[in-house]
Design brief:
The protein is α+β, with helices and mostly antiparallel strands. It contains four helices and three strands; from the N terminus they run H-E-H-H-E-E-H. Strands 1-3-2 form a three-stranded antiparallel β-sheet. It is globular and about 30 Å long.
């Protein structure tokens, strides 16, 4: 059983750190590079990524491919999580 609250916290923290340290306004990362996947596995991470996409925090660039191949583009909306709007 996955603890989605822990996964949510870890993914949010990881994406914010990637965004803050990036040298471009919309950084991209492969789903397999996210350490958050170790919390509940890639399938559950993909579920939460789809939720974050719906909220406007990121975009899955190649959603038509297998979720293990997804590349995620982090959007400026991720800052809402840092400032408490999300």
């Amino acid at each position: 059983m996955c603890d989605f609250e822990t996964l949510h916290y870890n993914l949010k923290d990881e994406l914010l750190n990637i965004y803050k340290e990036a040298d471009m306004p919309q950084p991209t990362i492969k789903i397999t590079s996210l350490k958050s996947g170790k919390v509940c596995g890639l399938a559950n991470l993909a579920k939460l990524i789809l939720y974050f996409e719906r909220e406007g925090y990121l975009v899955v660039l190649n959603k038509d491919e297998d979720y293990r191949e997804w590349e995620i583009q982090i959007e400026a909306g991720i800052l809402d999580l840092m400032f408490g709007y999300g």
